[in-house]
Design a protein that fits this description.
Length: 145
Amino acid sequence: MRTKILLLGLAVFLIVLLIPGSALGWSPYGYGMQPPWMGTAFPGLRLERNTDADAYHLAIHLSGITAQAVNVRLEGTRWLLISIDQSSESSYSNDGPDGYGYQRGFSYSSSNQSRRLSLPRDADGAAMQREDGTNSIHIRIPRLR
């Protein structure tokens, strides 16, 4: 019986040791937040989170994407949804050599990518502000007082 209790205690200890605190929502930077120096991977974008006494800041650095293609909105009260909708189309036509034959083509492609980020409990998502720059978007979410 004592051996079973020791093994169970050891198993719980290892599980707690192996699960990172961030997976449980624990972070010294706020619930679901990462350290300011840690970016988040997202194709075509680089997300950089930061925090100060008054607000949470999210810098979205753009690479080959326009700010108009990036949609940032509040989902519920605790989630920030970042999505990219892109589409392109092209067409071509060619006459054959010596005026014989005709070739015509059309192509359309679209893509949609999205990422949800959790907001800290003291974030006021309804008061979120967005500022578009040349190669970046800055999101400011005030803290509740």
